Amino acid sequence: MGEEDHVKPAVEAEGALELWQIAMKPGKPLAFGEVRGVPFIGLPGNPVSSFVTFLLFARPFILARQGPVRRLCRVQPACGIRLAQADKRREFLRVRRNEQGGVTLFRRRTPPC
Fold this sequence. Notes:
Helix content: 10-25%
Distance between the termini: 28 Å
Largest sheet: 3 strands, antiparallel
Strand order of the largest sheet: 1-3-4
Number of strands: 7
């Protein structure tokens, strides 16, 4: 999404983009379109964003193109975490499963000064 991101102009030169950004965190820069008639999915550069958008968008798309879709098992354990909604994007947080069968929020490490 920065100045040195050459994906959008390259794809548009050889095909078309149907989608460029989504209202989700992590994962805002997600591209979908076609290049020379072949479907194209561009994932974000951040590893966590890439993982989340792959699971939510790319994997289901690929599986649907292969035939009957097998869905991931969704588990919604109690977390006891209350967060303020900062903006309009849907946000996915990192958690760890705890011994009680729930989840604990995975805190970000602060880099040393």
